[in-house]
């Protein structure tokens, strides 16, 4: 089964560094760094607004907990938003690609 992880970052550089580290550790197969977005959120009792970039990480469900825990450890925010979920459906080639990650294989 496939899985996804979502997390916002302050900028593309920090997002790319985290993605590179998770890729290097074999915890994800891909990271999509999305362009600038406007985040409006409640933090410490006050409404905040910040420019951020979002990242969608792709992995195998068997690696989801390890990948989310590791991302929370290396994330530059003191309290990062790291959300992961299992994907109920994926195309067969995508599912096979991500399953190969869990098996230790590397494929493009």
Describe the structure in your own words:
With 108 residues, this protein is an alpha+beta fold. It has a single domain, classed as Alpha-Beta Plaits, CATH 3.30.70. The protein has three helices and five strands; from the N terminus they run βαβββαβα. It has helices at residues 12-24, 64-74, 92-102; strands spanning 2-9, 30-33, 37-43, 46-60, 83-87. Strands 1, 2, 3, 4 and 5 form a five-stranded antiparallel β-sheet that branches. β3 and β4 form a beta hairpin. The radius of gyration is 14 Å and the shape is elongated.
Layout: helices, strands, pairs:
Elements: E1 2-9, H1 12-24, E2 30-33, E3 37-43, E4 46-60, H2 64-74, E5 83-87, H3 92-102
Antiparallel strand pairs: 1-4, 1-5, 2-4, 3-4
What descriptors fit this protein?
Alpha-Beta Plaits; 3 helices; 36% strand
Low-confidence stretches: none
How would you describe the shape?
Answer: elongated
Mean pLDDT: 94
Distance between the terminal alpha carbons, to the nearest Å?
19 Å
Number of domains: 1
Protein structure class: alpha+beta
Helix count, per DSSP?
A: 3
At CATH level 3, the topology is Alpha-Beta Plaits
CATH class, named Alpha Beta
* CATH architecture assignment: 2-Layer Sandwich
Radius of gyration: 14 Å
Q: What order do the helices and strands follow?
A: EHEEEHEH
Number of strands: 5
Main β-sheet: number of strands, strand sense, barrel status?
Answer: 5 strands, antiparallel
Helix content: 25-40%
Strand content: 35-45%
Short description:
The chain is α+β, with helices and mostly antiparallel strands and 108 residues long.
